[in-house]
Amino acid sequence: MLIAEGLARNERIDLALACSLAAISGALNAAAFYAVGFFSANMTGNVSLFSDKAAEGNWLPALFFLTIVVVFIAGAAVSALMISAGRRRGNIGIYAYSIFSEAVLLAALAAADLWLLAEWRSTVLVLGLAFLMGLQNATVTRISDARVRTTHVSGMATDIGIEIGVAVDIARGRDTQTDAAHNMAKLRLHGATILSFLAGGVAGVLVYREIGAGLLFICSGALSLIATRAIFHVRKRSRQNGASGAGA
User: Fold this and answer.
1) Which of 24, 66, 96, 149 lies 20 to 30 Å from 170, alpha-carbon distance?
2) Residues 104, 68: Cα–Cα separation, whole Å
């Protein structure tokens, strides 16, 4: 899931990546809203809230919503810098290391959610998750050539609408240029991603209601498992290539 890039990826790999990471993102985003009343990955809503508060002259809340957007962008920028540095060094496991970094930071955020004073808890939780959602979304966008997005559903909902329109034209014989199988593959991908985000959100709220920050530790563990499997695969491949080179 976290090794092949761009056109080297197939539908099965994209589906596995989209469903697993979208479920985790959905759980974190919904749990954060349940816990503190703010979304960590919905930048459209946060920009709109900034506009609303700024128009009313409520500058402190307005700056908070603007900060969420800036922190999300910062997370995406850190991911881009990390991936670009890894690719320059020929590190094919750099995407896995990016997700592993997210897992480590999420575990640290979970610890902070447990031990921080109440007046700091909501701010740190939302801003921390915004950074991590930006990091994750940028990583997934880069590895899939923007076919997969996992931290929000607006773009995917738009893509589903587009693909449904294309499918209708194909069925009516008015679009002979588009491959019907490719159209259905895109519908499956976007539909499965949204359903995974939805299911993760429901599960996230239910689990957070029972064990609080334990949800963040669970999500951190899931991300670690996904990343370490890819890292192990990359290292195994490197050892095999090294052995082949030595034998030659």
Assistant:
1) 149
2) 20
N- to C-terminal Cα separation, the chain? 30
Which two structure tokens, joined as six digits, stand for 212? 């609080």
User: pLDDT tens across 6-44, in order?
Assistant: 777 888 898 999 999 999 999 999 999 998 888 888 898
- SS3 assignment, position 166: helix
174 three-class SS: coil
Q: Report pTM.
A: 0.89
Query: CA separation (Å) from 103 to 5, 114, 223?
Result: 21, 17, 5
| Percentage helix, strand, coil for the chain under 3-state DSSP, each rounded to 5 | 85, 0, 15
Pairwise CA distance, residues 181 & 172, whole Å: 15
Nearest to 82 by CA among 122, 41, 136, 118: 136
